[in-house]
Amino acid sequence: MVRRTRKIVWTSFARESRTFIFLYWNKRNKSNNYSKKLNILFQESLQQLSVFPESSIKSNNQNIRLKIASHFEIIYSVSDTQIFVLDIWDSRQNPQNFPIK
Fold first, then answer.
1. What pTM value is reported for the model?
2. Contact of 75 with 85, CB cutoff 8 Å
3. How many angstroms separate the CA atoms of 82 and 1, rounded?
């Protein structure tokens, strides 16, 4: 069985969330080493999703799924040819602020 991979497409909101996460950790740790590790974690998780897009948690919203990566949730939707990264959420935040209701 041949598995096809889907193209990863970041929304502008997701890029912004990722940037804020990296900036927060760079400032907090006074180094960008942790941000580099997070970036690798996000890329590896998305690579897995590009091959196995249904291997994560379904949300209550139709066609939106959640991939857990350490303390973060990658929120995405799937089409036939693409995976749209909608947001990256730090699960240690206040759950009332979770972007998917």
1. 0.85
2. yes
3. 20
Instruction: Report CA-CA distances (Å) from 93 to 18, 56, 60, 90, 96.
Output: 15, 21, 20, 6, 9
Domain count, the chain: 1
Quote the domain boundaries for residue 14.
Answer: 7-92
Tens of pLDDT along 7-31?
Answer: 999 999 999 999 999 999 999 999 9
Q: Is residue 2 part of a domain?
A: no
User: What residues contact 10, with CB distance under 8 A and at least 6 apart?
Assistant: 18, 85
- Phi/psi of residue 2, each to 5°? -95, 125
CB 89 within 8 A of CB 99: yes
For tokens 């730090």, the residue is 90
